[in-house]
Design brief:
The complex is a heterodimer of chains A (134) and B (150). With 134 residues, chain A is mainly alpha-helical. Chain A is 72% helix and 0% strand. Chain B has a single domain (35-141), classed as Up-down Bundle (3 helical TM bundles of succinate and fumarate reductases). Chain B contains 5 helices and no strands. Chain B has helices at residues 14-17, 32-61, 71-77, 81-109, 113-140. In chain B, helix 4 (81-109) runs antiparallel to helix 5 (113-140). Classes of the chains: A mainly alpha (134), B mainly alpha (150). The interface between A and B is large, with 54 and 51 residues.
Chain lengths: 134, 150
């Protein structure tokens, strides 16, 4: 039987050598790490509320910056992607009969993520535009 | 006489490997701590779907988003024990879920056990410190110490 001993580059997607499920696996990791690193900072900045209004209001004033607001939008996107992909993982693990439909579920996850991000980007983008105008 | 065997899985083209038999489900730990960790990630994940996504929608999307958040906003919000409980549960579950996630990642990328333990200990100590700090603040915060601030 003739099988190729080496795989052609076109057998894989670009850069990351795997099937599409490995992209979602990688994105789950990257978004997870981003979220926990933000959480470390976020517990500290929220704890400043215990030092009174002057200190806390100075801390939250970092959000009066359009670039910080764009990072905030990225954080929301990371949390939503991690959530939707997490639902997919739980469905597959708790209902193994769904595993043959793994690719369909992956597509549903991506569609749901973008479906949620469109109105959120519209709303948060509007907040950023208001911030720049004022 | 055949003296060599046919190359097997390593050289299967992707078209074939895509038809793998998935009926047994995805891999999961067979027992012990890793199985509890596996289960915790999923159970806390379900709860965090409500706590974290709800938190994000309320604090970052609703009304003017983060632009309306200041000392007065937090003081008003934390008048309710429900929000204090919500925020505390979010703190605890997100810290454990996230730090356990980091531990699983170090299992993949940090081969030397000593270095891996050191990295994980740093995260455990940081996580415990933030847990104590966050718990103290969320349960002892008293806006009346700053009259007129709200």
């Amino acid at each position: 039987m003739a099988t190729r001993a080496t795989k052609k580059k076109s057998d894989y997607g670009p850069i990351y050598k795997g099937h599409e499920g490995q992209y979602s696996w990688l994105l789950h990791r990257i978004t997870g790490v981003a979220i926990i690193l933000f959480l470390f900072a976020h517990v500290i900045d929220t704890a400043v509320v215990g030092w009174g209004p002057e200190a806390y209001n100075r801390v939250v004033s970092v959000y009066e910056n359009p670039i910080v607001r764009l990072l905030e939008l990225g954080l929301v996107a990371a949390i939503l992607y991690h959530s939707f992909n997490g639902i997919k993982i739980m469905l597959l693990d708790f209902f193994p009969r769904l595993v043959p439909h793994i690719r369909t579920l992956g597509t549903v996850t991506v569609v749901a993520f973008f479906g949620a991000m469109i109105p959120i980007t519209w709303i948060m983008g509007g907040q950023i535009v208001d911030l720049i105008r004022n | 006489m055949a003296t060599s065997t046919e190359p097997r899985h390593a050289s299967l083209p992707p078209e074939r490997s895509r038809q793998r038999d998935f009926r047994g489900g995805r891999d999961r730990p067979v027992g012990g701590f890793e199985l509890w960790s596996w289960l915790f990630m999923r159970i806390s994940g379900i709860v965090l779907l409500i706590l974290a996504v709800g938190h994000v929608l309320i604090m970052h999307v609703q009304d003017d988003g983060v632009g309306r958040i200041n000392f007065g906003f937090v003081a008003t919000r934390w008048q309710s024990p429900i929000w204090r409980t919500w925020d505390w549960m979010l703190l605890v579950l997100a810290l454990i879920h996230g730090i356990n996630g980091l531990r699983v990642i170090t299992l993949d990328y940090v081969r030397k056990p000593g270095i891996r333990l050191t990295i994980n200990m740093v995260f455990y100590i940081l996580g415990f410190t933030l847990f104590v700090l966050g718990s103290v603040i969320v349960f002892t915060f008293d806006a009346s110490k700053w009259p007129g601030a709200t």
